[in-house]
User: What shape does this take?
Amino acid sequence: MKKARILVQGIVQGVGFRPNVYRIAKGLDLNGYVRNLGNVVEIVVEGDERNIKTFIDDLKLKKPPISKIDSLKMEWLESDSSSDFNSFQILESASDFAGSSVIPPDVATCDSCLEEVTKQGNRRYLYPFTACTDCGPRFTVISSIPYDRERTSMEKFPLCPDCMEEYRDPEDRRYHAEATCCPVCGPEVFLYHKGNIESDNPIKEAANLLDEGNILAMKGIGGTHLVANTIDDVPVRKLRERLGRMNQPFACMSPDVPTIRSFAEVADFEEDTLLSRNRPIVVLKKNNDYYLSPFVAPELHNLGVMLPYSALHHLLFSYTDAPAYIMTSANMPGEPMLTENQEIIKKLENVADYYLLHNREIINRCDDSVVRFRGGDLAFIRRSRGYVPEPYDFSGINTDLNVLALGPEIDVTFSLLKEGKCYVSQHIGNTTKYETFLYLQEAIEHMMGITRTSKIDVVTCDLHPQFFTTKLAHELGERFNCPVLKVQHHHAHAAALAMDWDLDEYICIAADGVGYGADGNAWGGEILYSHGAEYERVASLMPHNMPGGDLTTRYPVRMMMAMLYPYYDQEEILDLMKTHYLDYFPHGVKEVEIVANQLERNFNLTESTSTGRVLDALAVSLHICGERTYEGECAMKLESAAYPGEDLFDLPIQMVKHEGRTVLDTSPILMSVVEKKLEGTSIKDLACSAQRAVSQGLAELAISAAHKKGIDTIGGSGGVFYNEAISMTIKKVVEDAGYRFIQHRNSCAGDGSVSMGQAAVAGLKCGKQH
Assistant: This one.
């Protein structure tokens, strides 16, 4: 007779881990118990030594599908011939549990639950909230830990006798499935239009309303979606007009992969991701037979599509032949996604025609995740529902300090580093909006609560002094009586990528729209030597003036004019702008002359090395996009215009010295594009060659830096690396030169992982001082 104590750490709460342990132990004739101790599951087993060793192996091989084992520690305990246990039991969670809890993310409805929902005669037939330990909401329903029903939004729905029997049976897949319920005891869905609409089947009625061209607000798992038909232009344009989003692409939901293939290209790796339990939005290329409304994703060669991830979604599509519905986050631009019924009705009064709502509280809103593939490699555009709050392993950086990182200002996430785990939050959004700034603070408090974090040792934020997140960092520093560490934006990008690949040093190409530089200027096309907690700016794009500052980001013709200005005399540049680009100046000729005067007098100018602004200038020079109405619009449309093109032109790639560093002068590329455009050259081919020239120039800067530093790895970070053509060109140039090229794989290339990089830098820097 042997006895052992086993501690299992990881995602082991709310995933059916304890009943799984129970079944394995019973099958091996072992006695003892299992119980939750925070993010640690404690197991004590007694029995034959060989069976105990088999038990250890089976814990790893036969774990529940949602669970994740980060560590498993076993110690033999003193034992004699007499038994301390008569059976194997599942004990209640300990009140004095240790460690921080790792709550699993929300996951898609499993096949077993879906079978119940679609099978006539089953007591959960057509029930939209069906879930079990293998699927359903987790993060969005939890209020505190340990993860038990009374600490979730399901606490308001006492289990009926049938559900309670399943809940208490360790052999049942709904044993302690906190989200379990049925039509007798669970939440209800209802249709609303100036009052509740009486309906025997509100979901079926909702599908009929959508097919008739109405716009619905549909409350789901982690928030609310605005839903509309994708075949008819009228409801799509109506939704755009009501939201004031005339160009930004809408995400869609489609019932299954074969249907998606009818309008989009789906590679095997994209199909696997679409079907994964995470169910993100996947950006796919439109196929030659694309037949959805062109207003779904206007002037783009791709669109975002996801599959149903809740029983509610599956049921909605069971009542329609529609190939896809628009399924976009229900919020006014820049504000958080709506979650409360009265707020949904009030704020969407002039947007939605009808509302499909339910009476279960969403405790943590969580937007859909978005991914894209570049040459077969996955890239997170937004890491949120289905992935959050699963932490990253930072044990190699710091296991002692609690670090709170607040991210940048737009596309914000925050990160909490505790006990060697980095918890990156769900997508928060644009914190220049007051409601979003409040949401950030609420989400921080909640994350600290579910990770049992009572103190913070270091707060870290962006270098920009005017960001709301920077100001909040100082407030939190005073609250926790701890230092505030500011991290340069692109350094944080580089650090996040280094964590993704467990690298100590490499050369990072940091290319995006803007980040506050160490010199007080706007950076965005940087070659950084990243080593541990430090970085060195070794090269960049040529700085260019931005007349009018932020006006240049909205109207890229200003950037184009500034880039060309030093290379033309004033009469030539004025004639070029007035003759060929006047429509892109909102105030016409007068504005052209004002901008020229600014450039001549060096008045009201800011300086930027931004790759994004260069791509914007190229887009407007080719008459592809003249106004940025959403983040990345001009660059995205440039990519789409270039997608069918051929790289036919050898555009000039000129390296010069500037302030002691090598820079790529992008003005000659732009000049050549403008000249060839005026000659009537193909726009798609010019766009293709222009992207290649910028990409090749960045790659050559990085290769030169890697050679000088004696480093064999070059990486790419920043929003520009969502562009597949640019990513693949840089990868080819780098690898052809004999260097290894890396990109983000488990984190975001864009600003969604800046907070993660900030946490890494703080952990490294402050860990050395600790």
Notes: The mean pLDDT is 95. DSSP finds 23 helices and 31 strands in the chain. The first helix runs from residue 17 to 27. The radius of gyration is 28 Å.
